[in-house]
Specification:
The chain is mainly beta. The chain has 2 helices and 33 strands. The strands form 8 sheets. It has a 5-stranded mixed beta sheet, with no helix packed on it. A 4-stranded antiparallel beta sheet has the order 2-33-32-31, with no helix packed on it. Strands 3-4-5-6 form a 4-stranded antiparallel beta sheet, with no helix packed on it. Strand 11 and strand 12 form a beta hairpin.
Length: 399
């Protein structure tokens, strides 16, 4: 091979590695990662810890991994910082993005969205920023609370904004600008919807793209709401009342249906979306009341844990019936890859669980001993590595 050709291939490979996209809870925001060839059992002490980085500051943010870079935010002395690491845990860059949430449960909340060579960072104070991925220079920024008369929340803004095509969707939660769509390249407003006129509820939106009218689905205060993705018209809403105003779990969309779960003993619901997208039909409800840990659909079953109903559940997707519930692991977050569940308990244990309609089948488990404060960040799986954030520490496990 000629040197010139080899150089072009190397440059192209480097570009592809750097320009990959990454967002909250996987490519479909449903907690399912497309990794294969992963371990089906861990050593007694857990999977190999490849490295740890203990200088993130305060926060609950999951990582975004795109190509050969890891992006994660944290807070030091009320200031938010973006940390850029390589895949070996080496700090490559660190840059402030301004004031972060320092009122309660201090720290960063929203996962960085890496999209087409740009980074989209959202702070607990309502600042949405677009940075160049390579230079970390600001391209544009919007204050969703001031620019769109939004309302901050008791625990700060925690949404991870959604990008579809050239549009980024976010939820200021104002009476007039309830949900907005902006040009991802410029930040210019495409549409604003009055929606329900009520505050957001910590939820990150989901996209439904296979209906006659593509939808943006999000939880807003006491309702689950569907919007026309092109115009912002609110097409339907379903009551999802929560005594604490907490419905942070991104809805799961599959098989023409939407699954949503919320804490406070409210539970879960499955909705069928009409072919035109204009209406929904409630198919079933369930007692599983997950507050912040999400759920995953594997085959014809939903797996997740409750909050007040402190069990891990397997629910039949078609009927809504409880297949089993088990409490031998503390409630927590869940993601899925290569046919296995990764359950991260709020007590600091991570369990490798085989999806099983007979029992909660824990194959391996270990305790996370590094890091600070609550075990709430959702794990991320990328190229055979599980990234676990616990407060000020990021850990990379070989799985």
């Amino acid at each position: 091979m000629k040197k010139g050709t080899l150089l072009i291939l190397c440059l192209l490979t480097t570009f592809l590695l750097i320009s990959q996209n990454s967002q909250w809870r996987g490519e479909n925001r449903d907690g399912n990662y497309s990794e294969t060839g992963l371990l089906k059992k861990w050593a007694d002490e857990g999977p190999q810890l490849l490295w740890s980085y203990a200088e993130l500051g305060e926060g609950y943010t999951s990582v975004a991994v795109a190509g050969n870079r890891i992006y994660v935010t944290g807070m030091e002395d009320s200031t938010g910082y973006l940390h850029v690491l390589d895949l070996n845990g080496k700090l490559l860059n660190k840059k402030t993005y301004g004031l972060e949430w320092n009122t309660n449960y201090n720290g960063s909340r929203s996962t960085v969205n890496v999209n087409d060579g740009r980074l989209y960072i959202f702070s607990g104070r309502g600042m949405l920023m677009c940075w160049d991925e390579k230079t970390l220079d600001e391209v544009w920024s919007k204050n969703l609370l001031k620019d769109f008369d939004g309302n901050n929340l008791k625990f700060g803004m925690t949404e991870s904004p959604l990008i579809v095509g050239n549009t980024i969707y976010a939820t200021p939660g104002g009476k007039v600008n309830n949900v907005v769509a902006m040009d991802k390249k410029t930040g210019d407003l495409i549409w604003s919807s009055t929606g329900t006129g009520r505050p957001s509820t910590y939820c990150s939106p989901q996209y439904v793209g296979d209906k006659e009218i593509p939808l943006i689905v999000n939880a807003i205060d006491s309702a689950l709401v569907g919007f026309n993705a092109a115009t912002g018209e609110m097409l339907w809403q379903i009551d999802q009342k929560n005594p604490f105003g907490l419905s942070p779990n991104t809805p799961i969309y599959a098989d023409g249906k939407i699954f949503s779960t919320t804490g406070g003993a409210i539970g879960s619901v499955l909705l069928r979306v009409s072919d035109d997208g204009k209406t929904v039909e409630k198919l079933w409800t369930h007692e599983m009341d997950n507050k912040i840990g999400g759920a995953v659909k594997v085959g014809d079953y939903v797996y997740g844990s409750g909050e007040k109903n402190r069990y891990w559940y397997c629910i039949d997707w078609k009927t809504g019936k409880t297949v089993y519930k088990d409490n031998k692991l503390g409630m927590g977050t869940v993601v899925c890859a290569d046919g296995m569940l990764y359950c991260y308990s709020d007590r600091g244990e991570i369990a490798l669980v085989k999806p099983n309609t007979e029992k909660f089948d824990i194959v391996s488990r270990f305790s996370v001993t590094l890091g600070t404060n609550q075990h709430w960040a959702h794990p991320v799986i990328f190229q055979g590595v599980m990234y676990v954030r616990h407060g000020d520490t990021l850990m990379a496990y070989k799985i």
